[in-house]
Amino acid sequence: MKITSQAMISRRDFIIHSSVAAAGLMVPGALMGAESPSGKRGTDEKIRVGLIGCRSMGWGDYVEFLHFPEAECTALCDIDKNVLESRAAELEKITGNKPKIYSDYRKMLEDKDIDAVVIGTPDHWHCLMTCDACAAGKDVYVEKPLANSIAECDAMVAFAEHYKRVVQVGQQQRSGLIWHEMKKYLDTGSLGRIAKVNVWGNFSYASILRPAQDSTPPEGVDFDMWLGPAPMRSFNGSRFHGSWRMFWDYGGGLVTDWGVHLLDMALWGTNTTKLPRRVMATGGNFAYPTNYAETFDTRSVLWEYEDLTIQWNNVAAAEVGPYGKNYGLEFIGTEGVLVANREGWDVIPKPGSKLEPASFRPDDKDRTNHVGNFLECIRTRNLEPACTIRNGSLCAKFAHLGNIAARTRSCLVYDDVRKTFGNSEADRLLKPAYRAPWTFPEIPAKKKNK
What we know:
Blueprint: H1 11-17, H2 29-32, E1 47-52, H3 57-64, E2 71-77, H4 81-95, E3 100-102, H5 105-109, E4 116-119, H6 126-135, E5 139-142, H7 150-162, E6 167-169, H8 177-187, E7 194-201, E8 214-215, H9 223-227, E9 235-236, H10 254-257, H11 259-269, E10 278-284, E11 298-304, E12 309-315, E13 327-333, E14 336-341, E15 344-349, E16 358-360, H12 366-380, H13 389-408, H14 424-427, H15 445-448
Helix pairs in contact: 1-12, 6-7, 7-13, 11-13
């Protein structure tokens, strides 16, 4: 199979034409000629979008909305006054309009003029904010991983489906041309039977070798609000902006940060839509024994299915990896392998195979495409965006299973119906205990009965 090495396609053409239901990405109902739920928007009606969590990934997602004339970026929320004021000034300079600003996301959700929110906060906030936004009638673009625990994933799915909100999970590779073409190739069966997928992500930011001392929070930071439902803990700069990902109360390390993107592609590429029958893992701060990070700088996870294994590896000490790539996937088939990352993919035949080498290197704009798909789903009230909340839940749970196995040093079997491992130590890691006054989200009983 010969595939062009340089593929060019416009963002809007890709959104409309490359989404194939059989590949797991639903085209908006209006484009497929199918009926959609009530509440469609006219093509001239603006979609007003607010941002919660303005510093890093949230801001990166939010500015993508500026590519689309149907979107209005109207409001910002952050617990860091310095970040909030800086982003507000930047947005006003770009748009010419002064945005509304909030220090408490609940106040933003009370604003009837906001149609949708982008949630770019640390992972431990994703659940409460998404559930509250759904209950407030807002559509949601939430960064990955969907949540910081398996129980929170289940709660978020329940809220999104109960309140019939469009929820796009920020696994933007679901809207990337690289990955759609990879999926199409894998579905041809050219690689033969795929027995294993190796996934790796070697990033040095998983190590914190010179930790800061505990201190008072910087002026303008509402640290109690930043902690939110997480346990009370002193402020430390090494557990704050960005590096929070490496502490269990707020994130899950490399396997939930970079890993969830790549694991999503492993599952999608093998048409795997359920959790594994068992998971095994090992991990620790083996590269840097004095690593301040709680999550592991060195880790291996093996998810076992009846006819497939998926494996994750990370070593924070090295920004290199297999095939000269510090991150990527390797689909191992009986006729050869396909190696992929965000730069493109290559097919390498095994010796003696009739399989032809192939390469794909497109000019991709996956995050822009992902935002465009979200806006189109809001307009048409299609509740199946490119990365649905159920797919985001599957991928986050998949990664958390690996973390729990590594933390308990166990071989685990998870019953997703009964919500138990049958292992008391592992079961304690399924659901966080929220710090008062925050409570774990539950749909009000009287609304359940409607």
